[in-house]
Amino acid sequence: MFTRGSRRRRSERDAEDPDRGRPCRACQELCPGFQEHPWRKICQHCKCPRGEHVGGGVPPTLQRVLARLLPESHPPPGSEDSGCSAEEFAWAPPGLSPDQVSQYFSLLPPPLVPRLRSPGERHRLRELLRQLPPHDLEPQFCHDLDEAERRELKLFAQRRKRENLGQGSVRPLPLTSAGAVCQQCGGPVRGGALAVFAARAGLGLCWHPQCFQCHQCHQPLVDLVYFCPGGAGGRLLCGRHHGDTLRHRCPGCDELIFGGRWAEAGGRRWHLRHLRCLECEGPLDPQNLPGGGQPLCPPCRARGAHLCDTCGDPIDLQAPHVTHRGQHWHPLPGCFRCAPCGRPLLGRPFLPRGGQIFCSPRCAQGPPQTPRSAPQRRSWGGGPPAGEGGAPGRAVGRSWGALGGVGGSGGAVVGTGRGLEDTGGGWGGVGWPGRSWGLLGVAGRVLGGTGRHWGGTGRCWGNWERRGGGYWEHWGRRWEVHWGHWGG
């Protein structure tokens, strides 16, 4: 229940919400526009986070929070000093000349450069909301806190700002210097090169600009804002993951838990009032909630399950699965196999044709197999039956995890942490290397190596670009991220 003050604050936020009605970049025309959920930090229509709807600059409320957090580099709205050394950027490291600003951004992947009215600016807005959640910093962005919780959050935020918060400074390493070592990749930083320094991490420690990232999520630290845990020895965290080291975060409302009534469910701690189904908002049984994934009650989970295209049995939303163009299979030799000969295709190339998969052109040229009935082959998103074209179902997960497997120019990839769906056709392959990071090949080319070099961590390297709502794009081809875990 809202108090009178919290209801008034929320109505004021709604009145000035610049994202209200904005289209979702992930769901596009499927979402009528952003409408903030009463207590979840998502759109009430499409369930995507606010970050998928942002655009047109930093919202005034967030700008005021940043101004109070880092007044020197984030002036309040209306200030003539933008904190940016070059007019074409939404933000730039303070204290640099225009030439140095250009040099600094040339060291970053192009999709991450925050040029005005560019994908890089939208990426910055998404990361500001994700890495520096306003509800971790000020109580007016939280849902229904009592006075004790509000007081504890204020003290918590003040202590973090006083003891852990910092902002990296960019400057050239002196030419007379013998060089230094990057704290992230271990590579050399030569004299005269631009480097990022973090005073709280330790005297003389520096990073390559592209390596200045959160130790937990491996995302570049937005606006160079970091939190340094005590005794970190050069280990830096974004605001979100630093908060997670100190407090439990409720998966329902995304807020840190400060007392009150809470419950343990699915290996995570929830506000008791927020232990509710994502779809129907009904109460959830803590004993029957699986770890990770979407918080769904059994009826909603059953309605949203995939059906295996071979055996017809449902695949739980949190279970590992293989997917290609709206079709789904259990990752078992008896399910993901060549239709005519039954050869298991896990970890092998396959040829999709007519809604079926084959191990070779010879099998594909044989007599057509009797496909399963259409109701057993519906995609999770309620799209057309697999093999009849149409868009794939929407992504189940919205996180960015490790990828694995080696494929050809199409098909599906299942890896440790997440699965990928190629919405194109052609040859492909599936597999998992049994490690957190793997290789992924397209058209015979290896596009990635360890997670430090490409999109397994949600970054954009090697012409890969993360799209909203669980999509990756590479050379104009679209890949869809799904939940799942395969140990090893």
TrEMBL record:
CDD domains: LIM3_Testin_like. Residues 1-10 have a biased composition (Basic residues). PROSITE patterns: LIM_DOMAIN_1, LIM_DOMAIN_2, PET. GO terms for molecular function: zinc ion binding. It comes from the Eukaryota. Gene3D superfamilies: Cysteine Rich Protein (2.10.110.10). Signal peptide: none annotated. Residues 380-392 have a biased composition (Gly residues). Keywords: LIM domain, Metal-binding, Repeat, Zinc. Pfam families: LIM (PF00412), PET (PF06297). InterPro entries: PET_domain (IPR010442), Pk/Esn/Tes (IPR047120), Znf_LIM (IPR001781). Residues 1-23, 362-402 are annotated as: Disordered. This is Prickle planar cell polarity protein 3. The gene is PRICKLE3.
